Amino acid sequence: xxxxxxxxxxxxxxxxxxxxxxxxxxxxxxxxxxxxxxxxxxxxxxxxxxxxxxxxxxxxxxxxxxxxxxxxxxxxxxxxxxxxxxxxxxxxxxxxxxxxxxxxxxxxxxxxxxxxxxxxxxxxxxxxxxxxxxxxxxxxxxxxxxxxxxxxxxxxxxxxxxxxxxxxxxxxxxxxxxxxxxxxxxxxxxxxxxxxxxxxxxxxxxxxxxxx
Length: 212
Prior knowledge:
Layout: E1 6-11, H1 16-26, E2 32-39, E3 46-47, E4 60-66, H2 70-77, E5 83-87, H3 94-103, E6 107-112, E7 130-134, H4 149-159, E8 164-168, H5 176-182, E9 186-189, H6 191-194, H7 199-208
Parallel strand pairs: 1-2, 1-9, 2-4, 4-5, 5-6, 6-7, 7-8, 8-9
Antiparallel strand pairs: 2-3
């Protein structure tokens, strides 16, 4: 089985208007969009910290929860997205989180900050749909790519050959080849796509660097 390779724009927004504008900017060029939720507690920034409404699109949405209380978010908003991604470091109730998301018939995954070893989630790999490895310190658009995360991707791919492995942070046309060769198959790009004048061209630039 060959895992599908996917480019995923990431949306950070302070208002509903900015939220909609950024989604509408990318929706015609991708199948999946990541929504970045930040509560200014788990990370020193805030994003989509309001009662959001998704514009009508044919895209799927994944929620990247950079929040101190993921259970609360899941109970309030879990129905609105297709996949919920929870930071391993934000909870001690990992199996409960998995159960709650699955009870809503949604996909679930864990996110690992740069300092968290992949071995921490080995016990959960048969219960989750994907893992997101942060290749920057989370919380901002445009943070510098951390080269040492490449080995972490490789370790996880060796551990679980058929798992969807996502990477997020500093993904540009100069870094995407590194994480692709290490074993990632889902590539989140925030500022490189959102801040580009030509979204289609930016996405195609990323796709052109992926090996088949």
